[in-house]
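My current task is to audit a protein record that another person submitted. I need someone to confirm that the token line plausibly describes how this chain folds. Take the sequence as given and treat only the tokens as open to question. This is what I was given:
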Amino acid sequence: MTRVVVFAYHNVGVRCLSVLLAHGVEVALVVTHRDNPKENIWFASVAELAALHSIPVITPDNPNTVEVLEQIRALQPDFLFSFYYREMFKRELLEIPRHGALNMHGSLLPKYRGRVPVNWAIINGETETGATLHYMTEKPDNGAVIAQQAVPILSDDTALEVFQKVTVAAEITLNACLPTLLAGTAKPVLQDLSQGAYFGGRKPEDGIIDWLQDARTIHNLVRAVAPPYPGASTQLLGKSMRILQTLVTTCTATGETPAFYVKESKAYAICGQGVLRVVRFELDDIEMSATEFFTQYGAARFEFNVSQ
């Protein structure tokens, strides 16, 4: 029986660990993260799945410590797997498994190497992404590819909806290639790194809307950071505002001052070019409808603060 150590977190971690168990792989240890109380934990628990199957679990802050390395070495694993685990592996850890360490990444490598690839793909207006299983090296997301699965990004998909597709893509990818990987007959393909680039993590302040941009660009930002992510933010009427859902309209607006208004029970936002319909929004942390906004503030156009 193949013995593995699994580093995993989030929904991708849960589904990929499930694939290994379904294939009869011996999971000797699961390494995961303690949930951060400051984070919105909307995803499934790898630790709970491991406990269900009586698999030992550890949650080190750093997986590269001498203590963790010794514990994993003693298990003599054939493979290490990383499924949405958030810490980097150093060379000493990568060299422990007999047949290599592999990672499941949420993009079609070599595109969108690095952090939060789903969110970046939506921000950049991509129409496709996916999941890629690849060998790990000390430099993230640049090892040879074992398999990948594409999924579409539709024009109004949110990051959550795309992430759900990528989770399924990850499960399909691992399930399809695992037999050849375990048999030693998989044929890894080197990445052409010139065809992609690295992207960094994102902070809530990166979701501040620049209303001088065109409607499609702003729409992409809104759906890329929509809940359960922090949301796209702005200022209106001296209050904080979160734009939670938008649709691109056929209305034309060029050179007009960016503004928010309600017309015929629907809310709209004039952008640097084009107009968005604002389907869902919050004002001062309270979600309200277009009708509620109209009742309270009327039909005037209210300018956004574009210099925030």
Summary: The mean pLDDT is 96. The two ends are 59 Å apart (CA to CA). The helical segments are 10-22, 46-52, 66-75, 91-94, 117-123, 159-183, 215-224, 290-297.
